[in-house]
Write a structure and sequence with these properties.
The complex is a heterodimer.
Chain A lengths: L1 H28 L4 H6 L6 H10 L6 H13 L12 H36 L4 H15 L2 H15 L18 H27 L2 H8 L4 H30 L2 H7 L4 H10 L3 H29 L7
Chain B lengths: L20 E12 L2 E13 L4 E5 L6 H9 L7 E10 L2 E2 L5 H7 L4 E4 L3 H4 L6 H13 L3 H14 L5 H4 L9 H13 L5 E5 L7 H18 L2 E6 L2 H7 L2 E6 L2 E7 H6 L4 H8 L39 H5 L5 E4 L2 E3 L4 H6 L4
Parallel strand pairs in B: 3-8, 3-9, 6-7, 7-8
Antiparallel strand pairs in B: 1-2, 1-4, 4-5, 9-10, 10-12, 11-12
Classes of the chains: A mainly alpha, B alpha/beta.
């Protein structure tokens, strides 16, 4: 087990270098001059521009630029934005917000998704099952931005159930409910369907019949024996999903004005802030890798037949 | 004062003097989209304490469905019990509430399944699964239940029970797993055990050990045992009486000795003839011609008539009732006498 974890952690190094380089390269290829972007239409003092370019290694080749960047990164220096704000500060501000949003979305998708899937699976072919199947299909088919604006309009503005937009800078938990629903909706639909399929598959399993034959109450048969086994594939999905929930909130954060990582990346791309983009993405990649490792380890805990060596 | 003598019960709610279990004219069918499959068509048998009844029959004969109906673990729907009674200690279980039946399951009637690997939950340790019996039925603490689980594993002769109690089912061999199934069934000292092909999934060398263990425990504890099998060899060693099933009916009922001596139903005769025999090495094995009937279209008259060498016109029109053909043995055949005498009509 320990060796397995170490091997997995070592494997993160090439993945980390590869992804950061790729992002760095892509932002580089976006073209445009960050210095002139800084000054807009006003034009700039050529001496200052030259000094700034040297400071940011902008005249060096891509590889050299990346090397400087990576060196800084390994020393914990994410670089600075063109305005002179440390990228690390930007990330420190944005990440907690995105993590909070991801947790809200995650909680919603787990609780509602698993419950809906369980009910649908137990009542296969009945009315409740059809409702879950149709609703999840609709959710899967609707693009996030449509769902986002529709829910914002009705639940936020018309009915006033939840705040329609988040408080700028520091959104409260309440602010995050509506964006959380939108962000989690797609995964919720998948979780519900995955749980349902898994329940349907396992409900006829021999060990469930054994549990009944042991005289266990129905509730215990379903929760301790049936649900526990059925959740193994669902947990795998959820783990991978938690990583992408943190990264994939660009649209949702935009609609609800949440100042998280998604918005930070979006704004940085439009401003050619390569160091911010790469820093944010690198952090996301790390989160994603760690989440995946945790899921794989959790998998072995959930299913004792799996052992890592 | 109770006015009805027949249902007078003692303090434990049981009718004194009644056999342990009586299945009385049970009918079960499966209603599916494709039609109605009549799985059990009037099965009656009884088991007394300390007695072993072997239920013999090929797949689809209804032997497992009967067992599942007794246990109350039949999938309903599609299964429907259309008629009959199942009296346990004199009380009809089919009239009990779900909660009453649950308290009997595992506690008074326990079941041993065929394939222990799939019948045990793969994600819980065997100690947990054994202990669950005590925790749920007796309200024991986790710790006490674990101690009980170790005791049970010792009882079924699993070596190093203390060390192995936390192991998972996949870490045991097939024979050891089946011992754990037996331990689970024995946990609460039930009155009746239903063993559904308990040795079918095992190596031949292990089969005998597991069967002996089961038979020993049954004798020690004076339990009733319903042994469902299609293995005539297993039956001969342990059973007191045999019920042979075909197409959801009992076609012959006899003591083991009588049945092996001389069958009273053509189907049993065919079964016995199809046992491979060393002294007939090199010759073709006997096989009953034809296939078991489709339960959605059971032949009119005797269900066995299309495959029966004795069949006459009456077999195609009239269902032969199970009737006594000799003291203590019954046969559902119009020509039981001829079969008994060995005169193929």
């Amino acid at each position: 087990m320990g060796r397995y974890v170490i091997r997995r952690l070592l494997m993160m190094i090439p993945v980390f270098i590869g992804t950061t380089f790729l992002i760095y390269y892509m932002v580089y290829q976006l073209g445009g001059d960050p210095i002139s972007a800084m000054f807009g239409d006003r034009g700039a003092d050529p001496v200052f521009v030259a000094q700034k370019r040297a400071e940011l290694h902008l005249d060096d080749s891509l590889i050299v630029q990346y090397w400087y960047y990576l060196k800084g990164l390994l020393q914990g220096d994410f670089g600075t934005t063109l305005n002179g704000i440390p990228v690390a500060d930007e990330l420190k501000r944005a990440f907690p917000i995105s993590i909070r949003l991801a947790l809200v979305a995650f909680a919603i998708e787990v609780v509602i998704g698993v419950t809906a899937g369980l009910i649908a699976g137990l009542k296969r072919g009945k009315f409740a099952d059809s409702v879950v199947l149709v609703v999840t299909l609709v959710v899967i088919s609707i693009p996030v931005f449509v769902l986002g604006y529709v829910l914002q309009y009705f639940m936020g503005l018309q009915w006033g159930w939840f705040p329609a937009t988040a408080t700028p800078g520091d959104p409260t938990w309440e602010d995050l409910i509506l964006p959380g629903i939108v962000l989690g909706s797609l995964s919720l639909a998948f979780v519900a369907r995955l749980t349902r399929t898994s329940i349907v598959e396992n409900i006829r399993a021999d060990y469930v019949r054994t549990a009944t034959a042991k005289g266990l109450p129905r509730r215990r048969v379903v929760t301790v024996h049936l649900l526990r086994n059925s959740l193994i594939p669902v947990v795998t999905f959820l783990g991978a999903d938690l990583g992408s929930l943190m990264a994939g909130a660009i649209v949702t954060e935009g609609i609800f004005n949440v100042d998280g990582v998604g918005r930070l990346i979006y704004l940085s791309v439009t401003r050619h802030e390569s160091s911010t983009v790469v820093g944010a993405v690198a952090a996301l990649v790390m989160i994603y890798l760690v989440m995946n490792l945790i899921v794989d380890l959790l998998y072995a805990v959930l299913d004792p037949r799996i052992r890592y060596a | 004062m109770t006015t009805n003598q027949l249902t007078k019960t003692d303090a434990k709610g049981t009718v004194p003097g009644a056999p342990l279990l009586e299945v009385d004219n049970l009918h079960v069918e499966f209603r599916t989209r494709d039609g109605v499959a009549k799985a059990i068509n009037g099965v009656s048998y009884s088991v007394a304490a300390g007695e072993t009844l072997a239920v013999l029959g090929e797949s689809g004969s209804g032997k497992s469905v009967t067992a599942q109906t007794i246990m109350g673990i039949l999938d309903m729907p599609p299964g429907v019990i259309t008629k009959g009674e199942i009296r346990f200690q004199g009380r009809d279980m089919l009239k009990m509430s779900g909660e009453e039946r649950r308290k009997i399951r595992g506690n008074k009637i326990a079941m041993i399944f065929q394939d222990a690997l799939s019948a045990l939950n793969p994600v819980y340790s065997v100690g947990f699964q054994l202990g669950e019996m005590f925790r749920v039925h007796k309200g024991m603490s986790r710790k006490d239940a674990k101690a009980k689980a170790i005791e049970l594993m010792d009882l079924v002769k699993i070596p190093a029970a203390k060390q192995r109690v936390s192991d998972y089912p996949h870490q045991f061999s097939g024979g050891m797993r089946q011992r754990i199934m037996i331990a689970m069934a024995m946990a609460l000292d039930p009155e009746l055990i239903i063993a559904d092909e308990p040795t079918t999934a095992l190596d031949v060398t292990v089969q005998a050990q597991v069967m002996d263990l089961l038979a020993d425990l049954q004798r020690e504890r004076n339990m009733g045992l319903i042994l469902i099998t299609h293995d005539l060899g297993v039956v001969a060693d342990v059973a007191d009486k045999i019920a042979v099933m075909y197409a959801g009916r009992i076609v012959e009922e006899a003591s083991v000795h009588d049945l092996y001596q001389r069958p009273a139903h053509p189907y049993t005769e065919g079964l016995l003839a199809s046992i491979p025999r060393l002294d007939l090495k090199g010759q073709d094995l006997y096989a009953i011609k034809g296939l078991p009937p489709n339960l959605m279209r059971i032949p009119t008259g005797c269900a066995f008539n299309p495959r029966c060498p004795y069949a006459q016109d009456v077999c195609r029109t009239d269902v032969p009732p199970l009737h006594e053909v000799a003291p203590g043995r019954g046969s559902a055949c119009h020509f039981a006498k001829e079969v008994l005498d060995g005169n193929r009509g």
